[in-house]
């Protein structure tokens, strides 16, 4: 993706699909790293809806956020992505980030055709450290 560093510097909100309250899980500590660097996190997970995480109430669906996030950080299995396609298209994030190990080319192609940029199979925390934090 062109200008990924600039995009990460300009982005302010990160919706976390599959957010998890357990600090030992990547779906907690990767977004928490971003929170510590000034991003506003918007947690999404129907299993924990109504609970609080990162100072925000966890919502069940992306469409419950009430705002379009700059980045949608996805912690869901590749085969589960199609069930989120409609709500992602409705939420209109500027970038959908599929974490390490998550790849679904048809899903990514559909989002890209709708004008939403996609990064697959890369850890947002690692890339942020490489491009923005430098360590």
Quick description:
The protein has 135 residues and is α/β, with parallel strands linked by helices. It has a single domain (4-133), classed as 3-Layer(aba) Sandwich (Rossmann fold).
Question: What are its keywords?
Answer:
Rossmann fold, 5-stranded parallel beta sheet
Tell me what you see in this structure.
The protein is an alpha/beta fold and 135 residues long. It has a single domain (4-133), classed as 3-Layer(aba) Sandwich (Rossmann fold). The chain has helices at residues 4-10, 26-36, 85-91, 105-113, 124-133, and strands at 13-17, 40-44, 52-53, 56-57, 71-74, 95-98, 117-119. A five-stranded parallel sheet has the order 2-1-5-6-7, sandwiched between helices. The chain starts with a helix and ends with a helix. The mean pLDDT is 95.
